[in-house]
């Protein structure tokens, strides 16, 4: 385990299977900071086909989303993120694991989120994060539910964050999980 994250779950050593934390080493001098964000040799669990950079204002919550096919690899490059994770995979135990991590640009850590692990990002301050995906965007792989669904067991610090239109209209947890199971079954054929 490395610097750059803080566990907020009751069992700090437990993450959903396949979720990886990668401590990153900033190289600082009087000119600023250089940070290697990704190297293929790190075995990060994601072979990126696309990188994206997102700027979020304070009190923004993005998600909760889940993908049946693609893996995400993300890190915060400015500000802080509260990352909520919930294992919703069809083969997950009945008491699906949920946890929250704080990612802080001051102590950079990258996180790999595999398919079937729900994720939501809350930003308590203006922040920039970047993320890579293992597959190109596919609308059928973009599933989600309301951030405040009880089944997620994620204690967000604000019950009224700024949400996108998509996240405001998101389905219930059960509907999202049914779609995920259907996609999982289709992918297994």
Provide structural commentary.
- With 189 residues, the chain is mainly beta.
- The protein has one domain (5-188): Jelly Rolls (Sandwich).
- 11% of the residues lie in helices and 38% in strands.
- It is built from 2 helices and 13 strands, in the order βββββββββββββαα.
- The termini are far apart.
Task: From the structure above, extract its key features.
2 helices; 189 residues; six-stranded antiparallel β-sheet; 11% helix; mainly beta; single chain; five-stranded antiparallel β-sheet; Jelly Rolls
Q: If you consult CATH, what is the topology?
A: Jelly Rolls
Tell me the count of domains: 1
Helical run tally: 2
Q: Detail the poorly predicted runs.
A: 1-12
Strand percent estimate: 35-45%
CATH superfamily: Jelly Rolls
User: What integer value in Å does the Rg equal?
Assistant: 16 Å
Nearest-integer average pLDDT: 90
Largest sheet, strands/sense/barrel: 6 strands, antiparallel
Order of helices and strands: EEEEEEEEEEEEEHH
Number of E strands: 13
Spatial strand sequence of the major β-sheet: 1-9-8-11-6-13
Distance linking N and C termini: 37 Å
Sheet/helix structural class? mainly beta
Short description:
With 189 residues, this protein is mainly beta. The protein has a single domain, classed as Sandwich (Jelly Rolls). The protein has helices at residues 165-168, 173-188; strands at residues 5-7, 20-23, 26-29, 32-35, 50-56, 60-66, 72-78, 80-87, 98-104, 109-113, 117-123, 127-133, 143-144.
């Amino acid at each position: 385990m490395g610097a750059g994250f803080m566990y907020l779950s009751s069992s700090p050593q437990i993450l959903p299977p396949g979720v990886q934390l990668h401590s990153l080493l900033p190289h600082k001098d009087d000119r600023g900071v250089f940070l290697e964000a990704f190297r293929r040799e790190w075995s990060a669990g994601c072979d990126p086909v696309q990188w994206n950079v997102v700027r979020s204002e304070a009190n923004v919550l993005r998600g909760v989303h889940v993908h049946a096919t693609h893996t995400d690899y993300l890190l915060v490059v400015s500000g802080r993120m509260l990352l909520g994770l919930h294992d919703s995979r069809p083969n997950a135990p009945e008491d699906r694991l949920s946890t929250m991590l704080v990612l802080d640009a001051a102590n950079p850590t990258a996180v790999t989120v595999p398919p079937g692990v729900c994720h939501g990002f809350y930003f308590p301050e203006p922040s920039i994060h970047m993320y890579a995906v293992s597959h190109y965007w596919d609308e059928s792989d973009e599933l989600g539910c309301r951030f405040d669904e009880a089944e997620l067991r994620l204690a967000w610090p604000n019950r009224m964050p700024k949400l996108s239109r998509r996240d405001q209209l998101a389905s219930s947890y059960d509907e999202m999980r049914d779609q995920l199971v259907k996609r999982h079954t289709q992918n297994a054929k």
